[in-house]
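Check the record.
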Amino acid sequence: MNALVVGLGNPGEDYAGTRHNIGQMVADELAARGGTSLSVHKKSRTRAATVRIGGEPVVVAVPMTYMNVSGGPVHALANYQSVAARDVIVVHDELDIPFGEVKLKRGGGSAGHNGLKDITKALGGPDYVRVRVGIGRPPGRMDAATYVLKRFSAAERKELDLLVSRAADAVESIVADGLEAAQQVYHAPR
């Protein structure tokens, strides 16, 4: 499978470790598993690396732009690597999934996620795979935009490495076994 895995987030130290950047955390984990780290790919405004998953070379990347304008870099790198939109896998935070859960799907709407909206527009449609990493809903009346830019709570940080690892495992399963097989594993009750 000629695949491109994109972990979404915002650039810079101010955003490192926030809920919105969990996609980047997963991309960094995949690179580390491959014995490398992400480096600047100037033609696409991403940080990227090639790793082997299931014996296949896979490009793992994070846009160096802000989340809401991720589409241009994703499209540019997909074109550069000759990866079809349906072979793009986007890892992102998901408010509508409880913290700690990982769900997989192809296509669908953006559920208000501006990064996904921009990628859908840039790729010409929603027919890419999403690894939806649950961050849960904001407490009380907190605005969702404020919530996603906050760092994980102390209780969540205790489980964060496991969540990032589980999401990285899900990406590897999609690449090695296909989306439907991966869904059987990651959507099963735990």
